[in-house]
Amino acid sequence: MRFQLAVTLIAAASTANAAAPRARAKAIPSEQLCVGTAHQENGNWYCQAVRGVSYQNVGKDWEYGVVTGMNEGNGELYWAPHAYSGPLAPFNEPMSFHFRGPIALKQFAVYLPNSNLGGLKKREESDHPPHESQNSHVHLPRHTGRLEESRKKQEKRGANWVHAVIDGVPQSWIHGETWASAVINGQPQSWINNYFGPGGSAPTPAPAPAAAPWVPEPEPEPEPEHEPAYWAPEPTPWAPEPESAPAPWAPDYEPAVASKPTEAPEAPWGEERLSRPSSSGSRIPRVEGDFARAGYYNADSQQNEGLVFLSNNGGQGSGVWSPTFGNTLSYVSADGLGGAAEPQTLAATVVPSGKEFAIMSDEPCDESCGYIRPGSVAYKGFDGADKTFLLEFSMPHQWGATDFQKDVPAIWMLNAKIPYTAQYQFNCHPDCGEFDVFEVLDHFGEKAKTTFHARAGQTGGDSNYFRRPVDGTLKLAVIFDSASSTVSVRILDNDIDFPASLSVQEIESLRLDEHGPSDLAYSSFNLW
């Protein structure tokens, strides 16, 4: 059904076939729902099943370190500070959607304000540890990512930083210890990753000059400013900027270019660096309504508008692999099992346990994406502080799973800068932002949780959970709302459509939980 606005329902109440609107329920504070229900399972905290979670006070002005260069020869990374600000920051930046099996994605739609679509400005298997291993993912009622905080403290003390003057410009990068984390036998464990590739060894650091490295400011007081985007690394922030200043070091770089079908129309907004998926039309037209459907996928009909399917299988048909940095992004095969040479639409299939794929807009990256690892397949993420996603999916059990994850499906979002370099190492995670939308944490478990990962003060997760849809599909809404500084995840009624446009009022009715099951509570969680 199309969403019914409250005013429409009231006006139609006198007609014989009018449906009475469900009374708007009041959100219940998370801690109240956890009174008498909080318990641990395999090291993770749970309270009770809910139909929705609304995260309050999302966003803070601050900064994070962004990768500006990757040296394949010696494994060195180059960094610069990136200030972020505005509603929901940094989650107002371009983001990508990620999925881990076992999962069958039936429908996916993204809605962006019409004002963002004038020029279509929408902003796994690999050799790296899987999604579960990037953080310990032992979810307490309020957790703060202590392992990551410890690493940041080491960086502030100057540990693992290498300094050098290259072509007359001072440079600084992190070198040495890379922490890996995992849950082993229900306990969080961490260790230093000392692997440097087949037959490799740790590169010798350059002598360190007296200048101290850049570290994030402890107080969130950056001046809002327009952040320029670069394909080449940005100048280091402490270097002088006279008119004759030498250019910063930049690696030789050309993005991967997939062959473009000769019959494909020329993109109206500039040169394409990558192919557009050819299964459906490319450019999404403006439509009536406040939010246009900027991307849509339907597994049964194989309809694909404005989206591209990717995976961490660089070197399998597209993208690249190296012993230094592993796999880049690649196109994903239609069955979700590996890489592909050109864009493919995901088939109506169950992607098995441990396999991952990602969805981004079908607009190839340009300089606005920032630094991208050479050779990677790269498309723009979903941009803006106001964006809504509708999903339909199932997560059937795979009882015989023997992969590392063993039947822990997940749906999550990342700042698109993360997969542009490498999803599981060598990136700005977690400071630049991750949102776990629907994540099963226990092997063969049936409880899915939501969690934010960002800088201190923006990390936390509700211990109230969603029931995993193992026997049928579930429809879900994910709503980023700048006016209320909230990000909400809501279960929807099964008869909800994914229409071509949504009004502001319709999205508000979704955010306020007017279209979901009434037998469960919905939770309100304050990030700070």
Automatic annotation (TrEMBL):
Basic and acidic residues biased stretches: 121-131, 145-158
Enzyme class, UniProt record, top EC level: hydrolase
Catalytic activity: Hydrolysis of (1->3)-beta-D-glucosidic linkages in (1->3)-beta-D-glucans
Domain Cell wall protein YJL171C/Tos1 C-terminal: 289-509
Molecular-function GO terms, alphabetical: glucan endo-1,3-beta-D-glucosidase activity
Alphabetical UniProt keywords: Cell wall biogenesis/degradation, Glycosidase, Hydrolase, Signal
Family annotation (Pfam families): YJL171C_Tos1_C, YJL171C_Tos1_N
Name this polypeptide is given: glucan endo-1,3-beta-D-glucosidase
